[in-house]
Amino acid sequence: MVDLSIKLAGIDLKSPLVLASGTAGYGVELASICGYSGLGAVTLKSLTIMPRPGNRSPRVWETTGGMLNSIGLENAGVDAFLSDFLPQLNELGVPLIVSIAGETAGEYALLARRISGAPGSIVAIEVNVSCPNVEKGGLMFGAEPQASGAVTSAVVENTGLPVFTKLSASVFDIVRIAEAVAAAGASGLSLINTLPGMAINPVTGYPRLGTVSGGLSGPAIKPVAVKAVWDCYRATGLPVIGGGGVYNALDVVEFMRAGATAVSIGTATFQNPCRFEQIACELPDIMNRTGALRPADLVGSVKV
Question: What's the count of helices (H) and strands (E) in the chain, helices before strands?
Fold first, then answer.
């Protein structure tokens, strides 16, 4: 009989399925529709120190094989999250991974301290390094190893929770960056963030998004994500939360074979908010077909 439970960087989860950051707000809204019985954890939308209004609309555009978005890290700020949203989330009883984003390493450190002192269901921190480093002229933290490592170190030094650094594949060498965050003390990696993309209305000539370009997610990026998981898992040996274009249980097993311990589901929930429940039902049968009795049997099992 298949056992879906996993251990992720020391965290016991009942399932390898994780809801990806930014796809269900703070998680309260989706819980009223689906419940979270099939999930191991929910990753919340990225938090910043101060509230952010986000980008101008339109913010989302469906593309062939995926979706472009330019939300702009809209969120209520850490204070409002802790006072207004976290108590509701704690009542759901689902493990929470809190994503954080900042403009300086100091902001990441402060967010880590605030999150770590909160009571309830928070089990880990995800570090979103796809943000501009204002101290270095606006270059994205995740674009080079030193900055990624510095942010990761700042978070690790200010929390006792496991720390997963979320990396983008739109860099020169994602493996070097993964090795840098591993050396900085990351408990694991979250792979991958969206890829840059753009869509234009061919009739009017105007961009489809209010900010002209945005981040591409969905099945179109899955091969890129699978390779990133494989490369970074081999290079670091760290636990990986892998995702990008996951729509069914076969996708989940593919990511696990590449090296993912847990697998995130994101864009699929825009098509069907309860898709993760269906994937959770499909997964035991697919695992039986592989001969695996638990997810750990599949991690890194690609035959090369």
Answer: 10, 16
- Tens-place pLDDT, residues 71-89: 999 999 999 999 999 999 9
Catalytic residue among 34, 131, 232, 281: 131
In a domain, 217, yes or no: yes
C-alpha 215/C-alpha 105 separation (Å) is 23
pLDDT of 139 reads 58
270-279: per-residue pLDDT in tens? 999 999 999 9
- What is the number of domains present in the chain? 1
Q: Regarding beta strands 213-217 and 66-69, do their DSSP bridges make them parallel or antiparallel, or are they unpaired?
A: antiparallel
Q: Is 131 a catalytic residue?
A: yes
Max Cα separation, the chain? 57
CATH number of the domain encompassing residue 27: 3.20.20.70
> What domain range is 66 assigned to?
6-297
253 membership: H or E segment, kind and range: helix 249-258
